[in-house]
Amino acid sequence: MRSVAFRLLLVLVVCAASLGTVRAAGETIIVQSTTSTANSGLYEHLLPLFWADTGITAYVVAVGTGQALRNARNGDGDVVLVHAREAEEQFVTEGFGVERHDVMANDFVIVGPPTDRARILGLASAAEALTRIARSKARFVSRGDDSGTHKRELALWQTTGIDPSAASGTWYRETGSGMGATLNVAVGMAAYVLTDRGTWISFGNKADFMVLVEGDPDLFNPYGVILVNPTLHPHVNAAAGQRFIDWLVSARGQEAIADYRVHGQQLFFPNAEPRVEQ
User: Fold this and answer.
1) pLDDT tens digit string along 180-209?
2) I need a surface site. Which of 50, 109, 137, 202 has the fewest CB within 10 A?
3) Which architecture does CATH list for 107-219?
């Protein structure tokens, strides 16, 4: 199994494969993004294609969505690609980003051991599943890191009327880590966990864990891409950052996203608004 650290390092290696050529032209960008996209291997697939088409090297900083947006607010990046729509729209409304574009989507799932102590297998409602987990005091592992996944988990808990933080350290455990590391903890503890499907498909340490809850509309997981506002941060490489965005939402980029598969399964589904190619 590839460790999370190795996966993230590999993203940077792939991105930097042709750095010598690109640096001469000064065409590099920093993309603040999520551990879920990095863990899935998506950037290893996309960024060499983007470089081949544009000559621009993209470096990915893979952190939780909340941290990615905070980094971008500080001007530590040219583009943000994350998955917490409300937070993304606030980022733009507050003037830190230029415009949010839909780029792709997948969904969240709740996974756990086949013993399924809380009896959630096959439930249509993620909120009902969390309610049963809390009532049974079955172990649940949370990322606890203000990531897009963590934000969605908290929103689901809110619909149940249950505050899991009151049980922190007992049946409810918080890792403060990325998705891959959190999945490793959950498997080790035989605990339930919410994960994006892309990371789950590519995750190599599943043991006997299985998807127990899926298909709830509340588990829909859209990703957005935003150019960091160059008016606030003049050092932002706005031209190259916009080319990255335009490439992602173009027919070429959308096809590349759709083509990415692990174990024969498609991880992300392009959903950019149709554009008239220039």
Assistant:
1) 999 999 999 999 999 999 999 999 999 999
2) 137
3) 3-Layer(aba) Sandwich (3.40)
